[in-house]
Design goal:
The chain is of the alpha+beta class. It folds into three domains: 181 residues; 70 residues, no CATH class; 151 residues, Histidine kinase-like ATPase, C-terminal domain (Heat Shock Protein 90), CATH 3.30.565.10. Helix content is 69%, strand content 9%. It is built from eleven helices and seven strands. A five-stranded mixed sheet has the order 2-4-5-7-6. A two-stranded antiparallel sheet has the order 1-3. A hairpin with a 6-residue loop joins β6 and β7. α2 packs antiparallel against α3. The longest helix has 81 residues. The protein starts with 9 loop residues before the first helix and ends with a strand. The N terminus is likely disordered. It is an enzyme of class 2 (transferase). Keywords: ATP-binding, Kinase, Nucleotide-binding, Phosphoprotein, Transferase, Two-component regulatory system. Its EC number is 2.7.13.3. This is histidine kinase.
């Protein structure tokens, strides 16, 4: 059953993933803008308040000077205009003092200053300048203290503003980290929801490419396109298994069914060639010779098919110790006639007296490699056979002179029914199974086969097998 939050298609899932990943980023942008707006409003308000406080402090400082000048002038001239001027200055100062004291945390100083202003309002009309001098001096000194208090208050508000900015920065940093982590988690979640079915598809594809076809039974869970692709791969795997079974049946039955009529054809051709059923003219002998060659070629192809079929059915090799020279010489003896026909010879370099292997599989490898070197090698040239140790492996090199194999075709030649472009110099047309049998035998023995470049030959096929010491 499909998950309720699982989108129907891959495109919808990708769009949903992008949308979910953008949500934390959008929240981060909104929070950043909000924090910047708060800091800006707070900074503007504090700046305006600071400017007002500074202006008020300067005005009060100037007003104290004006009060002292007006009071002293009145004490000398005693005019109504100076009386009104001094009273106006004192009243203005009293109002400004009330506004300043609302923001300052200095009640005693404010009360003392207010008392000095009230005393001046009551006494400057009757008292002399000498009597008012102490009051004016106290008023001027307390105003200086008020100015200092205002500047301290400004410093405190400036520090508060700095702390506010730092707190906003820290909060924004933590929010950014949190939202980035959340975005990363959402991206990882989306990646996992897409990577999981893709990994399942990769497992299916790899299982299809394996010979055993251990196909996974789990259904692909994910977007619709990937689920449908998984079902198609499942169908493809089933179809390939059916074709593989049919291929094995065809190889087994066709190879065996061909041997009986082929034997009859070869026996008939032998009777005709020996003229046991009557004399033949030259044209008839030529036809019989062609029939013999075709029968031999069909016999070789049938034997290769049987050999390949037996190799596919062989499950586990049987290892034992064997004498290397004896194993190699018995193989060379079987190929002596074909090598002699093209004036070729074996140049052997055996550095391992005994090897631990499956004799039948090793012989199949050597037979196919020598047959390949004899068929594609130059006439009168040697066939190099080298068996030597290398680290924890033993290397079997079979090399010949002839047409070099291009690098892009080397891996492909080890696949079944794949043939190179170089011409064969024997009478048999290749079936494309020789190197495939070599590769499969090497794999059964725990090794591998490859085409390498050497300085003494044009073509060299190397089989790397595990080596066991006695």
């Amino acid at each position: 059953m499909r998950s309720p939050i699982q989108p129907a298609s891959l495109r919808q899932f990708i769009l949903l993933s992008f949308f979910l990943a953008l949500i934390p980023l959008a929240v981060l942008l909104w929070q950043s803008n909000s924090a910047l707006s708060d800091v800006s409003r707070f900074a503007v308000a504090e700046a305006e308040s600071s400017v007002d406080s500074v202006k008020r402090a300067e005005n009060m400082q100037n007003l104290v000077i004006d009060i002292e000048r007006a009071v002293r002038q009145f004490g000398i001239l005693r005019t109504d205009s100076l009386s009104r001027l001094a009273t106006t200055h004192l009243m203005n100062y009293q109002q400004m003092l009330q506004q300043v004291c609302l923001d300052l945390d200095a009640p005693l100083l404010c009360q003392a200053q207010a008392a000095q202003v009230t005393t001046l309002l009551q006494n400057f009309l009757h008292a002399s300048n000498e009597e008012l001098s102490p009051t004016l001096l106290t008023l001027r000194q307390q105003q200086q203290q008020l100015t200092e208090q205002i500047w301290q208050r400004l410093e405190q508000r400036l520090q508060t503003q700095q702390n506010f900015v730092v707190d906003a920065q820290n909060q924004l940093a933590w929010q950014s980290v949190t939202l980035v982590v959340l975005t990363l988690l959402l991206v990882l979640w989306a990646q996992a929801r897409i990577a999981s079915p893709i990994k399942q598809l990769d497992t299916m594809i790899r299982s299809i490419g394996q010979a055993s076809h251990h196909f996974p039974h789990e259904q692909v869970v994910g977007p619709r396109e990937l689920t449908e692709l998984g079902e198609q791969l499942r169908w493809l795997a089933s179809r390939l298994q059916q074709l593989e079974a049919l291929r094995l049946i065809l190889l087994r039955h066709a190879s065996h069914e061909l041997k009986t009529p082929l034997s009859s054809i070869r026996e008939g051709c032998a009777l005709l060639s020996e003229q046991l059923v009557g004399p033949l003219n030259a044209q008839q002998m030529e036809v019989v010779t062609l029939l013999n060659g075709s029968a031999d070629r069909l016999s070789q192809l049938t034997e290769q098919l049987l050999d390949y079929n037996r190799l596919l059915q062989q499950a586990k090799p049987e290892f034992s110790w064997h004498d290397s020279t004896q194993l190699l010489d018995s193989c060379f003896a079987d190929h002596a006639l074909s090598l002699q026909q093209r004036q070729q010879f074996i140049q052997l370099d055996c550095q391992l007296p005994r090897i631990y292997t499956d004799a039948m599989l090793f012989r199949r490898i050597l037979d196919n490699l020598i047959n390949n070197a004899q068929a594609y090698g130059g006439e009168g040239s040697p066939v190099w056979v080298i068996l030597r140790p290398h680290e924890k492996f033993m290397l079997l090199d079979v090399a010949n002179n002839g047409t070099p194999i291009p690098a892009e075709l080397r891996a492909k030649l080890f696949e079944p029914f794949q043939r190179g472009k170089a011409p064969r110099f024997d009478a048999v047309q290749g079936s494309g199974l020789g190197l495939s049998i070599v590769s499969d035998c090497a794999r059964l023995l725990g090794g591998m086969a490859e085409i390498v470049d050497v300085n003494y030959a044009d073509v060299c096929i190397r089989v790397r097998l595990p080596m066991v010491e006695e």
